[in-house]
Design brief:
By secondary structure, the chain is an alpha+beta fold. It has helices at about 5-35, 45-50, 80-90, 100-110, 135-145, 170-180, 180-190, 195, 200-215, 215-220, 255-260, and strands at about 55-60, 70-75, 115-120, 125-130, 150-155, 160-165, 225-230, 235-240, 245, 250-255, 265-270. The chain has one domain (about 5-270).
């Protein structure tokens, strides 16, 4: 038997305390970043839309010519919203975290995007439409940024097509870093491994998050999901993860899985042409 605070348990406790202190220091650096940016960076709300939302639903239809029309509904949970709002306020930023106007500008700048018309519906919630002129160009641009062809794959033939997205810790972190280094700072507020690169499982991440911000934020994250509801150009033949009927697919991803990525997220759909 060893006394409390000694031996292996004491060492692990000490290491954990150092990690928490390091994260708190990182958050102070993030506040300084807010002060430097003064809300000017338009990529923040885009990342929050997908990676820090309590509830995001993406309904879309992809046509045979590659054109895609997407309807987005997203909102932030109260605890996450307050944490980000307080840090932004301390840095001199505005009160609204998910700003539809900023989202529209940032999304419209992406390669392959034709238009973005999102609106703030209530508080930190957004809803609206995004049109992608050619999903192939859009995905190829993303894959080129990550410099890994396995990140996103799209193929179409006269007989059908296939789409595969493979999000790992490496591709996720690299994609964020290449888009803009400051995105890592923003998501580091939530100590997300997709941003920090830290190797930690979901249980460890929730424990760390609760030790810094309290258990309420950990509870919010475990209840949060990203739902993809997509219609493809033809009847779906195979989808290893998710559900499908006809040319409609639905894929639900726990937000915790996206932030931690201790297990790769694989989204794959194979369809045939209409006969």
């Amino acid at each position: 038997m060893t006394s409390a605070g000694s031996g292996l348990g004491g060492s692990l406790s000490y290491i954990w305390q150092l990690r928490v202190l390091r994260i708190k220091y990182k958050n102070m650096e993030t506040i300084r970043f807010f002060k430097r940016q003064r809300g000017a960076n338009v990529l923040l709300p885009l990342v929050l839309l997908i990676c820090a939302s309590c509830s995001t639903r993406i309904n879309g239809e992809i046509h045979s010519n590659g054109r895609a029309e997407i309807i987005v509904k997203s909102s932030l949970q109260p605890v996450i919203s307050n944490i980000l709002k307080n840090l932004a306020a301390r840095g001199g930023g505005g009160k609204r975290i998910l700003d539809a106007a900023l989202l529209n500008r940032s999304i419209s700048r992406m390669v392959g995007v034709e238009a973005a018309t999102l609106d703030n519906t209530a508080g930190n919630s957004v809803e609206g439409r995004i049109v992608i002129s050619d999903v192939r160009v859009f995905l190829n641009s993303a894959a080129s940024a990550v410099k890994q062809g396995s990140f996103a794959y799209w193929e179409e033939t006269p007989y059908g097509g296939s789409f595969k997205l493979n999000m790992t810790r490496d591709t996720g972190h690299t994609f964020l870093s290449l888009l803009a280094p400051e995105l890592v700072d923003y998501l580091s507020v939530l100590m997300a491994p997709i941003a920090t690169g830290e190797i930690i499982d979901k249980a460890g991440y929730l424990e760390l998050l609760a030790s810094v911000y309290g258990p309420a934020i950990a509870d919010e994250l475990t209840r949060s999901n990203l739902v993809l509801s997509i219609y493809y150009p033809g009847p779906v033949e195979r989808m290893p993860f998710g559900t499908y009927r006809g040319n409609h697919t639905e894929f639900t991803i726990p937000l915790l899985d996206v932030l931690v990525l201790d297990v790769p997220i694989v989204y794959e759909v194979v369809w045939t042409s209409w006969r």
